[in-house]
Sequence to fold (68 residues):
Amino acid sequence: MQDTAFKYKLNVQEGGKVELSVPLPKGTRVAVLVVQEGDDNFSDLVLATESSLAFWNNSIDDESWNNA
Fold:
């Protein structure tokens, strides 16, 4: 059986309460997973892409490709 996932971004209310409405009929069994959302900046991805640029700056590789 294939599971269907729904993603909601909500704010926790007083007392840790979270309310949402889902497009499922009453009585449907669901599993709820709560994940605290991190910052929306992508600095870690930018750092990862910048740190690997040296791989492409390779004179031996350039020579191989230029003479292909």
Notes: The chain has two helices and no strands.
